[in-house]
């Protein structure tokens, strides 16, 4: 059944899904790889459409797959599909340009974080709504982190208490994201990085283990397991 988006919602979600996904091994573009029999993008869009504040979803698809992605997502939710660019940043810019008048909050979400819960979408949007111009979901870093040189010799140990692993969706006041993209120079891997360059404070909210980025075959296996076990998780020290 096709989900209905909220016509009174104040959130547009951009989904850059035009990457090749070479780290997953040879095959289809990453967003179209199957997880429990359905493309990652379908899982991601289904969860975005279930978030109550979402008014618009715009997907940037690989150019050769735009028509196929439109057909794929039509039964899931009313989604706008645009051709992506050569870099992630170009794909986000193309999706941003397709957002209709209305939503004042724009979230940018990687299709590769296919199991992101609707509650995380809502908590990022709520933090923007409450006055933060840029919001990112983060998790603490659990591994010890070393800085190394080109010969793999350790230069030093980084204090992990001050480090965060960043997820998506990243949320922005619409005008702030538009200004950051208009001024963008070098391609960055996240949109908060562009906004930081504009001197805008970026606020962190707690992320979710389920928002893991499905990048390598191991991540795909983990995501399959999470779906098969009803997404139950616990940490060993909680
Ligand atoms: O390559 P990486 O895993 O960092 O890509 C993150 C997200 O950006 C993925 O969902 C991918 O499909 C998307 N992307 C894109 N256009 C590109 C490259 C990546 O939409 N040219």
UniProtKB/TrEMBL annotation:
GO MF entries: 2-C-methyl-D-erythritol 4-phosphate cytidylyltransferase activity
Pfam families in UniProt: IspD
Catalysed reactions listed for this entry: 2-C-methyl-D-erythritol 4-phosphate + CTP + H(+) = 4-CDP-2-C-methyl-D-erythritol + diphosphate
Keywords: Isoprene biosynthesis, Nucleotidyltransferase, Transferase
Site, as annotated: Positions MEP for the nucleophilic attack: 160, 213
Gene3D superfamilies, sorted: Spore Coat Polysaccharide Biosynthesis Protein SpsA, Chain A
Protein's pathway: Isoprenoid biosynthesis; isopentenyl diphosphate biosynthesis via DXP pathway; isopentenyl diphosphate from 1-deoxy-D-xylulose 5-phosphate: step 2/6
EC number(s) stated in the UniProt entry for this protein: 2.7.7.60
Statement: the UniProt record of this protein carries the keyword Kinase: no
Sites annotated Transition state stabilizer: 23, 30
Nucleotidyltransferase among keywords: yes
Similarity annotation: Belongs to the IspD/TarI cytidylyltransferase family. IspD subfamily.
Function as written in the Swiss-Prot or TrEMBL entry: Catalyzes the formation of 4-diphosphocytidyl-2-C-methyl-D-erythritol from CTP and 2-C-methyl-D-erythritol 4-phosphate (MEP).
PANTHER family: 2-C-METHYL-D-ERYTHRITOL 4-PHOSPHATE CYTIDYLYLTRANSFERASE, CHLOROPLASTIC
Protein name: 2-C-methyl-D-erythritol 4-phosphate cytidylyltransferase
Lineage of source species: Bacteria, Bacillati, Actinomycetota, Actinomycetes, Micromonosporales
């Amino acid at each position: 059944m096709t989900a209905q988006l909220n016509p009174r919602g104040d959130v547009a979600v951009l989904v850059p899904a035009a990457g090749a996904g070479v780290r997953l091994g040879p095959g289809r573009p990453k967003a179209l790889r199957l997880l429990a029999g359905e493309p990652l993008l379908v899982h991601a869009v289904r969860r975005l459409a279930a978030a109550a504040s979402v008014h618009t979803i715009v997907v940037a698809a690989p150019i050769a797959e735009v028509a196929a992605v439109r057909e794929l997502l039509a039964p899931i939710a009313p989604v706008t599909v645009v051709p992506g660019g050569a870099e992630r940043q170009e794909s986000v810019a193309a999706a941003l340009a397709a957002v209709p008048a209305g939503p004042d909050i724009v979230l940018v979400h990687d299709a590769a974080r296919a199991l992101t819960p609707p509650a995380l979408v809502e908590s990022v949007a709520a933090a923007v709504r409450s006055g933060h111009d840029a919001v990112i979901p983060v998790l603490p870093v659990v591994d010890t982190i070393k800085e190394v040189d080109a010969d793999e010799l350790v230069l030093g140990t980084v204090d992990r208490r001050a480090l965060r692993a960043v997820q998506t969706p990243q949320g922005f006041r619409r005008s702030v994201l538009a200004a950051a993209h208009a001024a963008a120079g070098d391609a960055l891997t996240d949109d908060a990085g562009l906004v930081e360059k504009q001197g805008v404070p970026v606020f962190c909210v707690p992320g979710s283990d389920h928002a893991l980025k499905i990048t390598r075959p191991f991540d795909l296996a983990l995501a399959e397991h999470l779906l098969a076990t009803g997404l139950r998780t616990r940490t060993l020290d909680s």
